[in-house]
């Protein structure tokens, strides 16, 4: 979908373990940072889209999550849309908010993604992930894993899935094994991605993990499920990120410096595709490229959904950053490292920045906005002009249940 909306301000709290902070407190802090960045007052907001995935399971807050957060800040009266779409919750909220602004319904709106996943009862945290599949399937998540095992030609062995680890790690592991058999990628490539993103994350003051890992350290770390070691898996976390979106008219009135335009954004849900090479992510990418007239060759930087290290490698291919099967070669070339031709996950990605699922999509928009405006500090991408965000969520069949791809462009008003 072609868009014409602008990012006026962004805010984000450091991701991590915040047992001493409330969900309202985390979200409120990010929202205030975004309003300050935009130079706007909360009374100027005309509507809000609030993205959260797991509060019902983890904290018990259901139904009016966004209203509770905003009322705690003294914000009321305006329409509040609560968006829950697994790990793609706040990217979905952003896509929908931008569509409404582009259509002319609002001039100033808020988007916030927020989540608390850490809990003294670990079963609650794991339960949040286990619910992002079809729970009415008689075999539940195990059926998803079983289908993926069959597709990968692997034995069906899921000891510990959903109890000692997120069932999604089994899903990612089987996708990785299929890619290894089909294209020759190796566990060393996945370790290279984890090491790369650890270096990027070390430069990000808001990242959950800031230590730099070598490929050897990643390979030697504790195994989660073959072929994934701990640093190849995104961690759970608490956090919040917020974005103030405005119309072109309002952006000009405000005299935004280095305005960032939302050029296109697509939300695609899973389906039972049969053709090789089809996927939710590929379709979403194709739609934004077609709507914007921008292609993968035009991109300056990418923030993509590296819920596991193999996920990043596979995303290189279906986002069109390289040909199918070319992900390993693209990685080996150094192109996706800071200083390379197309840095990917300069923020540290989900692997190092962290993955408070409802906040991850908005956090990508925060990172790309700062990159395009030249204020990303030590991790700044040289001459960043066009950024792509890719955020997936849940699992249906053999793919994500929902995926959002968004293109942001640095503009100069005349």
Automatic annotation (TrEMBL):
Domain Thiolase N-terminal: residue ranges: 7-248
Keyword terms, alphabetized: Acyltransferase, Transferase
Domain Thiolase C-terminal: 283-397
Enzyme class (EC, first level): transferase
Superkingdom assignment: Bacteria
One of the record's GO molecular function terms: acyltransferase activity
Any single Pfam family the record assigns to this protein: Thiolase_N
Stretches of the chain forming a coiled coil according to its record: none
Documented EC number(s): 2.3.1.-
Keyword Acyltransferase: yes
Protein name: Thiolase family protein
Organism: Pseudomonas monachiensis
């Amino acid at each position: 979908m072609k868009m014409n909306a602008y990012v006026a301000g962004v805010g984000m709290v450091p991701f991590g373990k915040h047992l001493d902070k409330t969900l309202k407190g985390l979200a409120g802090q990010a929202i205030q940072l975004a309003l300050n960045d935009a130079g706007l007052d909360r009374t100027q907001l005309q509507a809000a889209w609030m993205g959260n995935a797991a509060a019902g399971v983890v904290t018990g807050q259901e139904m009016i999550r966004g209203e509770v957060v905003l009322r705690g800040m003294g914000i009321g009266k305006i329409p509040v849309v609560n968006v829950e779409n697994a790990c793609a919750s706040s990217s979905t909220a952003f896509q929908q908010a931008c569509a409404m602004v582009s259509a002319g319904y609002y001039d100033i709106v808020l988007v916030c993604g927020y989540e608390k996943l850490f809990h003294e009862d670990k079963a609650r945290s794991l339960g949040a992930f286990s619910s992002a599949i079809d729970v009415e399937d008689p075999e539940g998540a195990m059926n998803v894993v079983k289908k993926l095992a069959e597709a990968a030609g692997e034995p069906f062995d899921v000891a510990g899935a959903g109890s000692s680890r997120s069932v999604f790690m089994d899903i990612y592991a089987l996708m990785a094994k299929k890619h290894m058999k089909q294209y020759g990628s190796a566990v060393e490539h996945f370790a290279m991605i984890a090491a790369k993103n650890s270096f990027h994350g070390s430069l990000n003051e808001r990242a959950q993990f800031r230590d730099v890992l070598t490929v050897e350290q990643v390979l030697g770390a504790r195994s989660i499920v073959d072929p994934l070691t701990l640093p190849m898996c995104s961690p759970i976390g608490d956090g919040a990120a917020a974005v103030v979106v405005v119309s072109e008219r309002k952006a000009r009135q405000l005299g935004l410096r280095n305005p960032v335009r939302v050029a296109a954004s697509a939300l695609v849900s899973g389906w039972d595709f049969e053709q090789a090479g089809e996927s939710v992510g590929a379709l979403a990418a194709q739609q934004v490229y077609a709507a914007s007239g921008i292609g993968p060759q035009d991109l300056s930087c990418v923030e993509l959904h590296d819920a596991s290290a193999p996920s990043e490698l596979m995303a290189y291919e279906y986002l069109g950053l390289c040909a199918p099967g070319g992900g390993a070669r693209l990685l080996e070339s150094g192109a996706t490292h800071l200083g390379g031709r197309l840095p990917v996950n300069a923020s540290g990605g989900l692997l190092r920045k962290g993955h408070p699922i409802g906040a991850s999509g908005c956090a990508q928009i925060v990172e790309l906005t700062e990159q395009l405006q030249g204020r990303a500090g030590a991790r700044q991408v040289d001459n960043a002009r066009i950024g792509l965000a890719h955020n997936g969520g849940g699992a249906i069949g053999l793919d994500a249940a929902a995926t959002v791809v968004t293109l942001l462009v640095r503009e100069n008003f005349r």
